[in-house]
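Supplementary notes (optional reading)

For those who missed the lab, this is the record we used. Protein: (Perigord truffle) hypothetical protein. Length: 281 residues.
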Amino acid sequence: MNRIFRSTTTRPRHIQPLSSFLTPHAHRSLATTTSSPPLPLSPSQRGALWYARLGIVFVAHGLFWSFLGTYIVDQTVPFAKGFKSSSVTDSDDTTVFERAADNNRIVKSLRGNPDYEEVRPWGSLTDEQRKTNLTTGLLAGNGKIQYNRVWMNKNDGSTVLVLGLGRKLTGYPETIHGGLIATITDEALGRTALNVLPTRNVVTAKLTLTYKRPAIAQRPSELRPGPREFMVLRTRVVEYTDRKAIVQGRMEDGEGRTLVESDAVFVVPKVWKLAELPREV
């Protein structure tokens, strides 16, 4: 009887060729060595790049014309350098303020009034003495107290002070320092008190100021100063004795508007002799 034996021989498995194993590796190696094309820019990126390029062009264009214009002005315009300092406060020609004051309507009226006498404050002082005086020395000059004239009424001793105050005396920009106004007012009121007292030496016992409007610094052009830019300080004696005088004042701008109102009391100390100083000082 024939036996049927199950074959114990193992059927060989299907063997893939070597090329099938190598092919994927070859593809992967090729993929890593070949660069892919760049991705296209989005619309927003293209817009930003366009604006950046446009900005660079405009900046370069502006710088070019700026340097070119400066060069042309400095090299080809003969009077350009004269315009670089168009402010009188930087000039040494004080006569421009004298001419401007001559056109001031208040100055014209005072000079045409026989009751008023024109004087210069501390005019009798020598140059050396003037250097130690505050308003006629340290604070006088271009850009500071540029014009300072007094007209005294021969009948009642009242005075009219015409001032040209420059930009070097400002506290707040373009505005004359309030402390300087107090100094000028105190001196003007004291001078008026001396017009009626039998002495040439007084001291300030009381000074009150009420500021109504800012006093704008004088801003005249070097070619044509404005006569309306001068300030006017009017003072008058209210009451006085041999050793005491009460004086009031009002500072106005070129339009006649009140800037500062003031009143003061001046006294002669008892230890001082009357008429201690010569009258002309």
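If you only remember one thing from this example: The first strand starts at residue 116 and ends at 119.
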